[in-house]
Amino acid sequence: MGSQPLLTTLELIIKDDCIWTYAGHEPKIPAPDLISKVSAGMTFVGVAGEKSIRGTFLDNLLINYDYNHQSGTHRDLFGIKANRVPVFEHDGYWAKVLQELEREDTTWNDIIRNPVVLTAPKTYTGILEYAFPALITFRTSFLLGEILQVHILYPETETQTKTFVLVFTKPKHPILIPLLRRSMLSAVTTVVEQDTRAIETSYPRTTPKIRLPKEEIMFHAQKLYHDWED
Ligand SMILES: [Fe+2]
From the CA of 78, how far away is ligand 1's center (Å)? Predict the structure, then answer.
């Protein structure tokens, strides 16, 4: 036996309450501080939607950047019928979107399937903040408080992408946290399952010829991705 260690130690980076690792790869940019920024003043609820998705990193990235997909992919969960985006700003690897969402009327079926919809107002605002390439965050308020989803994405292989979601809340009263925990985590699990189905069953994408204002963010994400590779 030589003196070579059998295992190289995994380098860990501690950033606020999170531990990052690049699995031996040299980090290209510092670990982002977005998680602690967007979750300031909120309570951690748990992790949901941990999955290995059969899809390239780019396909996963694009569906998460695309704030329009909520009214298609997640239609039966949130019943979103209108989606206005008054703000889209970006600076380097960071981007932010403000959206105004309008829901369809809630049916009894919806309530039985997912009690969380009962607490969702008819119109509400969503704030998306992105830290390319690994983080997509979505924060919104409902009648009982606020919910924050931090989607983590990283490539496992050329054709497989890992994801999980950190869920935070800021309830109007702390007594609500244990009551809401289960339905918040299960709603987020459903969100990831719907994204997974959309990614795993979609046909290969073609680049659209006309650029709609709503698709600006997709071109932005695609550019970051291709510039990263070069
Ligand atoms: Fe989604």
Answer: 11
> The whole model's pTM is what?
0.87
Tens-digit pLDDT profile for residues 62-115: 999 998 888 788 877 777 777 888 899 999 999 999 998 887 776 666 666 666
CA of 8 to the centre of ligand 1 (A): 36
d(CA 62, CA 70) in angstroms, rounded, equals: 13
Q: How far is the CA of 113 from the centre of ligand 1 (A)?
A: 18
Query: 217: CA distance to ligand 1 center in Å?
Result: 15
CATH of 35-203+210-229, one of 3.40.30.10, 3.40.190.10, 3.30.420.10, 3.90.380.10: 3.90.380.10
Whole-angstrom CA distances from 44 to 38, 41, 48, 69, 148 are: 12, 10, 12, 26, 9
Q: How far is the CA of 4 from the centre of ligand 1 (A)?
A: 45
Would you kindly state where each structural domain of the chain is located, as residue ranges?
35-203+210-229
